[in-house]
Structure prediction request, 128 residues.
Amino acid sequence: MRVRLPKEQEIGLAYTLLTAEQQVGAGETSKYVFNYPTHNAVFTWAGAFKNVVMARSRVGATQRVGQDPYAVWDLSVMRTGGAIRPYLQLTNLIDAAYQTIPGVVMPGRAVIGGVELRWSPSTHAPVK
Prediction:
């Protein structure tokens, strides 16, 4: 579900429930088949400020088969106009420890930043 709010804002809410009927047979093993998320909920918010800055926030909670539930919060801010567009992403802000694939630990809290340079050839005369 998504809802548009005043002043260039939007919120979203999603939920997924997944169940399985089949069990692993006698003498069979599987590392990945029964690692699916049984419950997954996501809340998102996005907003633009004066057509210059865009911000987004995402909070997701997941429960996997046989594992403790975990939540992940990501936040990003970016400039939306101009030729030089800096951005900042903050991922896994609550530093949740989780594995989407057994044995593969996902990264903890991280900060990613950079600058996007936009070049529009149509606004610049070709060099001769």
